[in-house]
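Protocol step 4 of 6: record predicted structures for both targets in the notebook before any analysis. Target 1:
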Amino acid sequence: MTKKKEITKTTYQLPIGPIHPALKEPVMFEFEIDGERIVDVDVSLGHVHRAIEWAGMRRNSIQILYLAERICGICSISHPIAFARAVEDACDIEVPERAGYLRVIQCELERICSHMLWAGVAAHEIGFDSVLFLTWEMREKVLDLTEYLTGNRITKAIITIGGVRRDITKDQLPKIHETLNYFKDNFEKLRKIFLDDKTFKLRSQDCGILTYDDALKLCAVGPTTRASGVKKDVRVDQAYAAYGDLDIDYITPDVLTGEVNGDVYDRIIVRLLEVKQSIELIEQAITGMPSGDIVSEPKIPKLLNHIKKTAGEGIGRHEAPRGEVIHYVKFDGEHENPYTWKVRASTYNNILPWIPMLKGEQIADIPIVAASTDPCMSCTNRVAIVDQNKKYELDKEQLHKLSVEKTRRLMR
């Protein structure tokens, strides 16, 4: 008898990206695979850097608003409101009560629009393009309403420092209720498609699991962390605008199923329930909205003069559809433009959770697992220095050291 040769287990490297048919934006994955199973994964960012923060520090705060809403087209309310709240915090600007309600309405319309877009992308990643067309057809209703209320479908230009730029009149209320009723009438159809369909269940249950502990340790935000059972939502934790006056609570998957698994299926549940919650919040805001001004200071030159005289810093937080967005500004008391402006988008927090989500999964699950966090790579930037035609990438230790030095410099 011949002795059988001992077979050693071998793993291989599988690069995906930065350009790939399954990726909607540039990002680089380096997978270590054993057959079809993912053993390890590394993620490389830095393929999209538009220098928006640099450009903003050379413009006044009103001009920055229009840059901020172009950080992400899907979150074109989220970034301006976070920036506006940061400036309002630094300059002690009080937002009128009615403006707070109007901000809530616009933010929740954006949440519905974003979650419907995500639902279509998720269906596409699984292979259900007919569901993609259905959800995006429904999303058009929100875009039509947004255009009706603001004049624009994507970059709405509705948020300003100290309030909003346009009011909602009584004549516009029927159109709002018509759109909300359309979603309420079709919600059961969405629920059956995404939560009862066998194919969706097979592709999403027990797939891409993010545990409660990992969600906390890796600082995940938004539906990604709530789907793991972490009750984290800026609208509830530190209520702003009119959220403190409304009936709002954390959306976690156990609200519907009685349990939390932290998989792709649970992230679907959270987003679908948040669409329903957003409808209810808009209706509450319309019903309870007081009369009054919609902006604290309508004269922009006067507002800019007030900001110019401000020496201080401010932070603005907002629960965007993808999760918490933070904007930081500092003014020196001499110039209209901020001394510094720093943006932390929610996708920053939801990149590291990809690693435990993807480990142990099949190669075919990569698109839906990655898409389940609703990433926006255009919101993420890394630092690169070009010196004498040589490019240097900064590692973790160098970035931390530079961050500490910059923080100390800003605090002087």
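Target 2:
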Amino acid sequence: MVVTSALALAATFLLGLIKISSPWLYGGSVTLFSMVPIIIISFKMGAKTGFVLGVNYGILKLILGTSNFIFLNFKGLLCSVILDYLLAYGFIGAASFFRVNKIKDKKFNFYFSVFIAFCLRYLCHVISGIFVWRALLAQKISTANIMLYSAGYNVLYILPELTITLMGIRFIMFKWPSLFGEGHLI
């Protein structure tokens, strides 16, 4: 389990380096299938293992790729670390937790749980963005505008990231359905 998780973490990190050109100056990016290995681990080994893997990815990403923190106060920094890195990716890793037992269609249930995990990731980024932008622009922009800006800014990369992730998972389901654990999804 440790070796498989480590390989998934490495694959996630390497896939995260393949970024689609983006206009996002203050963080956020659309990557090529980077969340797929974490989601596979979540469904193969369980939500707890996936959550830990997601948090570890967030820590790795935090250590190796932060440059925007120099402008933040302590509260903004703390919120960004916890929400943008630890919880956001932890929720992606816990995707299998969001399965609904009453839904009989396994594929729909799978996609639904991944969608919920991405919605929670989005919510983490939006809340963090509110704290960050309030710390940076409190005198220039109203709180309502900060909330709208954070929601709009984050949806512009989360939605394409979700779409690409679902496409990658769909492809893998056809090629290697055994990766998704017992009772294969296909």
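Step 5 preliminary note on target 2. DSSP finds six helices and two strands in the chain. The chain has a mean pLDDT of 85.
Proceed to step 6 after PI sign-off.
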